[in-house]
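re: the backbone from monday

yeah here it is again, tokenized this time
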């Protein structure tokens, strides 16, 4: 063999090996880049999740301060629930929805409706307006005519002054207030 031919063959082999090596390195680099992109996306989701958790933790917390069946309106029994904002930022609006067995809707504003057996409007949701930590608001829930005790689930859509919104859910058992005890015996008189 000719020396030049051997040199050309050796150069071709070296070039092919170098090309293969470069292709392999490019493939490894692409894999590393995809892995890095995946890691960055994972970290971004984790940071967003942590920020969402912090946002939710800064949001309002509620409880039911009192709940009972109110039968003062003889036409329709209703549940009276006192919602209390335990903590969180001041709110500009709280939209309330009630669900549960025997729950027929939220007691709306007083209005005359000749087709209704009540003088009140029945709404799917009501806006109870602004509230701040420590504040309370009475909410009335219309119940089925035969329902006197049930669990009422309230969904609260809360909005802060900057437009932030939170979804909260609370529940309470409503049942008639206990009857006052009857006093047995005779009353005291001025002579006693």
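seq for it, each position gets an aa:
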């Amino acid at each position: 063999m000719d020396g030049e031919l051997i040199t050309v063959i050796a150069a071709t082999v070296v070039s092919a090996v170098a090309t293969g090596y470069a292709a392999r390195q490019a493939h490894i680099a692409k894999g590393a880049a995809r892995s890095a992109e995946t890691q960055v996306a994972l970290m971004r989701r984790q940071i967003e999740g942590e920020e969402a958790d912090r946002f939710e933790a800064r949001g309002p917390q509620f409880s039911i301060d009192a709940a009972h069946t109110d039968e003062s309106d003889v036409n329709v029994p209703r549940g009276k629930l006192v919602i209390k904002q335990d903590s969180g930022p001041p709110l500009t609006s709280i939209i309330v929805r009630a669900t549960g067995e025997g729950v027929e809707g939220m007691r709306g504003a007083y209005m005359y409706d000749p087709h209704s057996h009540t003088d009140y409007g029945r709404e799917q949701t009501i806006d109870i307006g602004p509230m701040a930590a420590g504040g309370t608001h009475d909410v009335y829930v219309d119940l089925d005519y035969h329902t006197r005790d049930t669990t009422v689930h309230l969904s609260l859509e809360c909005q802060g002054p900057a437009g932030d919104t939170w979804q909260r859910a609370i529940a309470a058992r409503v049942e008639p207030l206990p009857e006052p005890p009857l006093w047995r015996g005779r009353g005291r008189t001025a002579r006693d």
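The first helix runs from residue 3 to 58. The chain has a mean pLDDT of 83.
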